[in-house]
């Protein structure tokens, strides 16, 4: 792995993204608008919005990274550029970390806009510091990227890649505590919820919401999310093959 | 003793799925030459090329490039590969595409711009690759390989759909690169390009049916042009 090539790769991926003005606009504006919508829906219950809005702040970059990573990597695989890159000095890890840096920057920008809107204009309230929320959102977005990288190996078209959303993303969103608290689900479903990494992102956010100081529990939950992201990244990198049939 | 070949292929066998594509081919490509890989589509040209650049899984035999096994790490700065469909980023400009591949090899923007000019894309340097015509995409893809000044340049049908003037210029360019010491392997299904090669490999149904210079091929078959020479060889094989 070479740091120089990693940065060159990240720069190339960011430039591709920035050349697509419409996507940039959607990435930055949509989460803030939907959180605003949710806030208006929950107009009479700000304490419910404090919970839901906070979870959405992490859920959006998670979904975004899953989508853009699975589709752009699929394009690399099917467009011949991946094969070409594999004949250059680019190591697999250069490519994967390059994607993480570039899309991590996109996720950070998205979170910054959405969080600013939520905290400053929609009255979202947490006991803990905003930087902890930001950190959890970035780590969660890395998990989305890693899953997207992994599933791109199993899709042969962009249409299929999108179909993986209901398989890998939607169950995690339903079971993480976004639509219903995990401890009020059927017993067996709580077990499933505990096995899904996004649940730990929500637990970490709940810690920030309830405690003015950053707690050890939050760090532990965040470590689980990060660990899952690393495992998925390694599995995903293993699907990048120099030699194919 | 003859000098070590730039590319040496021995008994190469490749299956794709259950179908045998290359059925034990061998050849040696001398450094500083242009070798033409000819054959109908589906004959295994791309598979052979991918084996040389080390992206093809092989079943048997060996492929050695510049003394290393094909695809080995030290070769990644010395061998360049231009795929049949332009492998470039549609959402980057021509200049940004070439600059990216240049940067991977530690080369700067000025060298990238020179490569863009050299394929006649100077006027389109700021256009997004996705908006280019097929031939322009091919040339951009070629510039991404030329910019690294490789020792071995492997091109899969690089002149398909190109303007005759550009094609002429490209072949002059290939010749100049070979004279500078580079080794080129160029696949084509256009016979009129065959005469510009130092040596020809004719691939048919997974085997080489000819591995010779254009002049010797014509002489051996007693024909005036290469198209006729190849037909002669194929008929001879089928008669046996």
TrEMBL record, chain A:
Keywords: Antibiotic resistance, Cell membrane, Membrane, Transmembrane, Transmembrane helix, Transport. PROSITE patterns: ABC_TM2. Residues 11-243 form the ABC transmembrane type-2 domain. GO terms for molecular function: ABC-type transporter activity. Its main location: membrane. The chain crosses the membrane at residues 21-42, 54-74, 95-124, 130-154, 161-180, 218-240. GO terms for cellular component: ATP-binding cassette (ABC) transporter complex. It holds the Pfam family ABC2_membrane. InterPro entries: ABC-2_transporter_component (IPR051449), ABC2_TM (IPR013525), ABC2_TM_bact-type (IPR047817), ABC_2_transport (IPR000412). It is a multi-pass membrane protein. It is found in: Cell membrane. GO terms for biological process: response to antibiotic. Signal peptide: none annotated. Belongs to the ABC-2 integral membrane protein family. This is Transport permease protein. It comes from Glycomyces sambucus.
TrEMBL record, chain B:
It holds the Pfam family ABC_tran. GO terms for molecular function: ATP binding; ATP hydrolysis activity. Residues 7-230 form the ABC transporter domain. This is ABC-2 type transport system ATP-binding protein. Keywords: ATP-binding, Nucleotide-binding. It comes from the Bacteria. PROSITE patterns: ABC_TRANSPORTER_2. The lineage of its organism: Bacteria, Bacillati, Actinomycetota, Actinomycetes, Glycomycetales. SUPFAM superfamilies: P-loop containing nucleoside triphosphate hydrolases.
